[in-house]
Amino acid sequence: MLKGKVAVITGGSRGIGFTVAQKMAENHADIALIDVGNIENTQASCDMLKVFGVNARPYQCDVSDFTAVKATVAQIVKDFGTIDILVNNAGITRDSLIFSMSEENWDAVININLKSVFNMTKHCSPIFLKKHYGKIINVSSIAGLMGNAGQVNYSASKAGIIGVTKTIARELGARGICCNAVAPGVIDTDMTKDLPGRDKLIESVPMKKAGKPEDVANLVLFLASPVSDYITGEVIRVDGGMAM
Ligand SMILES: NC(=O)c1ccc[n+]([C@@H]2O[C@H](COP(=O)([O-])OP(=O)(O)OC[C@H]3O[C@@H](n4cnc5c(N)ncnc54)[C@H](O)[C@@H]3O)[C@@H](O)[C@H]2O)c1
To answer: What is the spatial distance between Cα 185 and Cα 188, in angstroms, rounded to a whole number?
Structure first.
């Protein structure tokens, strides 16, 4: 499905990002994994992708850093020749109610979750424009649709991603570039394992269970593949019905 395509996935060494990478590698895409964490861990994740017979390389980069992203994208193009698919997945939480939310935690979440999407899209777009092809998939959250008490920074960043997605879809649609967002609900990863009130949240899900990273990865694969070529500017929930 993705043979000959090069996919860049941010926050790709574990969790949803790594599962997206596995799905894409299984479908024959070559993979550039960007993560801020230890390069050995990201290298180990790449080694796991090589069983699918694809090229997979790790890049250590803080995606909130404009200049570092520029250099990393240039290095990926040098290593792989091009980029066809960009998955903006890196994200963090720093939760607290507005009364105790620090400026530092507001800035960290906005910069890592939202500014990163600007940084990556800005530096990858010239490559997509030149080839009249590109698939951008942004990982938002139902918190960006509904809000969530204790997550004013996270909800703002994820709502911001939806604004970026729709704007990029309008700006670049005529140039063969699709930009869509996915909005996961509660997905079982390191990010949610200690989530306060997790059981109560799951109780509010019509399907009465958390999702798996594969549930999100299958949707991202669909949006990255040619079968979704006439879909852009869309936000698709993958949440067991939680936010309907
Ligand atoms: N797990 C959920 O329930 C859920 C729900 C909705 C949305 N999401 C979103 O899905 C995405 C992936 O979440 P996850 O659950 O797999 O989380 P995770 O914590 O397991 O993985 C996030 C990855 O991003 C990387 N990362 C963090 N800061 C970075 C930075 N500055 N630069 C580069 N990489 C960085 C981390 O090192 C990690 O590998 C996030 O954007 C998250 O907000 C998750």
So the answer is: 10
